[in-house]
Amino acid sequence: MRRLGLFAVLLTLYAGPAKACGLALALLVDISGSVDPREYRIQIDGLAAALRDGTVADALIRQNAAVTLIQWTGASRQEISLGWTRIDNSDALERFARQVEAVERPWAMFATAIGEALSIAETALSAAPDCDRQVIDVSGDGASNEGIDPGEVRDRLAANGVTINALVITGSEPNLLAYFENEVIGGANAFAIAANGYGEYPERIRRKLIRETASAVSQMIPGAESPIPMDARGQRRHPAHAVITSCKFVITIADFPCHRANSPRP
Questions:
Q1: Element (H or E) spanning 74, and its range?
Q2: Class of residue 155 by CB neighbours under 10 A (exposed 0-12, middle 13-18, buried 19+)
Q3: CA distance 234 to 264
Q4: Could you write out the DSSP letters of every residue in 136-153?
Q5: According to a count of CB atoms within 10 Å of the terminal CB, is the N or C end of the chain lower?
Q6: Among 218, 214, 118, which residue's Cα sits nearest to residue 165?
């Protein structure tokens, strides 16, 4: 019996430690009243396709990422539609993408409560696996018009090390990108991407997920090019001072050219 016990221990040691989680990613989909059935379908199918993108899939698997899907609309109407799922191989990723495609819309005719959306993401992250990074990926086509101030929740999340990025679907409201820039995104290296209408959503969410996931992987691979670190004013830092800060960027055109936010918080 003692030999069997020793053999089991040796097998455990041979298997090595459990693979660490590099990223906990909360995907927040806007289902407010301004989103019609066709636009909702574009979001869901576009998100599933973006998860299957080769660069995104490889980055999620390399990081043994944990992913959850949250659908959000008015105050008190936020749903964790898919709980935390570990993406540790291609089969797990494909299962999650199919679950995204099959998810049902719980509400359709309610307001826009971004603060509550961030709040339920905060709750979800408190129950997430222990990961190196926690990122909220929120998509929306309008400013918050109900519930708590999103900036209040954003600041609390950022203070706790969470990054909030946004995909802003423009066209329905003026200055919407600036609104998300100033009131929603926050945390280390937070950024916003603009999609000019729902027709651009699939490509923009793909680009957004590449930026959120692949940048960390580039630091894990010897010889890979890492993102240029920035200070709090958006100025380049020497690699010797590669410290993650609270810079914010807004991306509006292809290939991720970064621009400092127009009115960054001090």
A1: none
A2: middle
A3: 10
A4: EEEEESS---SSS-HHHH
A5: C
A6: 118
Report d(CA 68, CA 85) in Å as an integer: 6
Q: What are the structure tokens assigned to 120, written together?
A: 């339920």
Residue 258 in this model has a pLDDT that exceeds 70: no
Strand, coil or helix: 30: strand
What CA–CA distances, in Å, run from 90 to 59, 61, 65, 143? Answer: 11, 7, 12, 36
**CA distances for 207 relative to 43, 60, 146, 188, 253, angstroms:** 14, 14, 30, 19, 10
Question: Mind giving me the DSSP string for 197-231?
Answer: SGGGHHHHHHHHHHHHHHHHHHTTSTTPPPPPPB-
pLDDT tens, position by position, 224-236 = 333 333 333 333 3
Q: What is the distance between the alpha carbons of residues 32 and 71, in angstroms, rounded to a whole number?
A: 9
Burial 186-220 (b: 16+ CB within 10 A, else e): bbbbbbbbbbeebebbbebbbbbbbbbbbebbeee
Structure tokens at 8: 């089991």
The phi, psi pair for 30, rounded to 5°, reads: -75, 120
Q: Which helix (H) or strand (E) holds 57?
A: helix 54-62
The burial of 41, by beta-carbon neighbours within 10 Å (0-12 exposed, 13-18 middle, 19 or more buried), is given as middle
Q: Return the H-helix or E-strand segment holding 55.
A: helix 54-62
